[in-house]
Amino acid sequence: MDKKITIAIDGFSSTGKSTLAKQLARHLGYVYVDTGAMYRAVTLYAMQNGLIGNDFFNREGLIEHLDDITLQFLYNPVLEFAEMYLNEVNVEKEIRTLAVSQLVSRVAEVPQVRHKLVEQQKHMGEAKGVVMDGRDIGTVVFPNAELKIFMNASPETRAQRRFKELTGLGQVVTYDEVYKNVVERDYIDTHREDSPLIKADDAIEMDNSNITKQEQLQKVIDIVSKMLNEQA
Questions:
Q1: Rounded to 5 degrees, what angle do the CA atoms 118, 183, 56 make?
Q2: Do residues 84 and 34 make contact, with C-beta atoms less than 8 angstroms apart?
Q3: Strand 31-34 to strand 6-11: parallel, antiparallel, or no bridges (unpaired)?
Q4: Helices and strands in the chain, H and E counts
Q5: For residue 4, which phi and psi values (nearest 5 degrees)?
Q6: Which tens digits make up the pLDDT trace of 171-184?
Q7: Are 196 and 143 in contact (CB under 8 A)?
Q8: Full-model pTM
Q9: What is the pLDDT of residues 7-40, one digit of tens each?
């Protein structure tokens, strides 16, 4: 079909937003944008430049450096998805560490950071035919998106998934550390003043605690197909 829509996928950490968004974009031939990777890349920049750590955060310093940060998604044909580049350096692996996860919500709270990235995200989706996932896509970035999905799962389920992912990457972490991070991020994401994580009124909520990735994907494909048929 020639008709293309904008699909916004929001939800809590480790609900598989990126996995679903990648699968859906590949199935539809749409562009996939991982907004979480953008915030993680800014966080990595702050860590690399001594602007943030577990017990300090130089917010003003980061704000002053924002113009020095360039973010790009470059498609990797081998992996079949776009990887994040920070100032022309591939940081896809570095931004997925628990160290970054423990700090990213604090960086994402900064209004100037959100403003910079939201403007880029809006530009990326101007032509439609995009699947974008994050925390505020359906409420702030694309409030008029034709399809909004809000993903959820129990904290225990999400922590187990994240623990398995991190240990699979060779990182030395404990389940308790990961669970604590999941709960802390939930609190920060839902209580920040600027663009808190909330379900858009017109979003379809999906709890994937007890369904497979394939079942989840098929549910959304069915929703998209019905929507496109109705608009044809």
A1: 65
A2: yes
A3: unpaired
A4: 8, 10
A5: -125, 150
A6: 999 999 999 999 99
A7: no
A8: 0.83
A9: 999 999 999 998 999 999 999 989 888 999 999 9
